[in-house]
Amino acid sequence: MSTDFEAIDPYLRGAAFPGVDNWPYPRADPMDFRLPQDTWATAQLPVGVRLEFATDAEAVEIDYSCATDDLGYRGAGAGTTFEAWRGDEVVASAPAQVGRNVARLSPVAGDGKVVVAVPEGMRPTIHGIRAVGGSLTAAPAEPRWIAYGDSITEGWTASSPGRAWPAIAGRAYGLDHVNLGYAGSCRGEIASAEQVSGLPADVITLAYGTNCWSRPPHSTGMLREGMRAWVSIVREGHPTTPIVVLSPIVRPEADNTPNRLGASLSDLRAVVEEVAEELKAAGDKNISLIPGANLITAEQLSDGVHPTDEGQVILARVVGQAVAAAVGNGVGSGVGTDRG
Length: 340
Description:
The chain is α/β, with parallel strands linked by helices and 340 residues long. Helix content is 25%, strand content 23%.
């Protein structure tokens, strides 16, 4: 039995860049001052950051501090607890509080990996971890998946961080997901492409376009050239890394409504799909496409934009299968069909 807290480094997953100042787990390079303000604002949240381990302990305790209980527009879905997952089941949870505290998770002993999702919206810092009545072993390394996208990738309106589709897919298919979903932004910025190009990655997903309809609006020509440039820059650092492109999912208000530059979301979706196919036809054999329009229905959106928990499961299954196939990963049992 451990009597002192251990350093978390062996157990920490999903951290994209080294921490600085008040941002222990930034999801964009804090030294890159070219980033749009809206991107940096959401990149400060530790979305997708988690602890992974195997244990025979009766309990695991986490020494942490949380900076805020103001969860903003995302509300309680941004996370108010530490949730211990084994596969698609929450086996233990503990409420999070502002300030320095210890979260106790019990029971957690059993076969297989435990994944602890953190209360992302409360801006936690994890100081240490210890086993009570047993031992901890860090989970083995898995294929590293960089997931670039907008609030849909970030997991908005999932009922908790562990129910966001990249988190579900990571657990189900044995993938080390790094969530670079930027709510309200993610428009294929060159600065982000350069950052992704420099990150270690076994597979990359590219899922943007929704915010190009309105924040700020793009024409089809702008999106076409921007996406080609984004992929080109990422390819400088990842010449053969699989890239899975997901075109925008359904958005009823935008699908057939032209923005101020004359492009509906259906138009922009078609451009994303055309560029992916053109790049493949031009010789990029490591790029693939998932058309997004019919993956989920409008009834599986919670607010007309973001998937419900049911929709999150569907995205996890479809995209997770494609990502796992891209890296030849046979680990994991997949996402059960009984949940969506």
